[in-house]
Amino acid sequence: xxxxxxxxxxxxxxxxQILEAEKNxxxxxxxxxxxxxxxxxxxxxxxxxxxxxxxxxxxxxxTPSDLASRKRFITVxxxxxxxxxxLITLKEREIERQLNVVIEATxxxxxLEKLEERQLEEYRHKEMKExxxxxxxxxxxxxxxKEANA
Length: 150
Known about the structure:
The chain has helices spanning about 10-60, 65-150. The chain is about 90% helix and about 0% strand. It has two helices and no strands.
């Protein structure tokens, strides 16, 4: 009997390549989200530092223009932090969409793998039947030879 070959092997390999590409995209998106979170954390630390610094300087005494300048800096950084939070929310939605794509691609690959398993089982069953027939034929031929020689 010829060697087993899954009839949809090319499709399965193609779907596996798609799955890997989608997983890579998901990984990139997660890395970008981590970078955005790191930037946000750095901004928050800077805002806290500058706010504490401003409070300390206000106690010691500060000129109005210096106060306005420092407050403006803090306000700009707070706006940047707000924008960063918005970007993080968008990135999380993008990750969720990509995760759904990966899940669907995984389902497709799993379906093909199950189909391949079924075809392999059928192949093995047919192979066993062929071997049984061969053995029966062999035994029958041996018995006929014994009868012919006797």
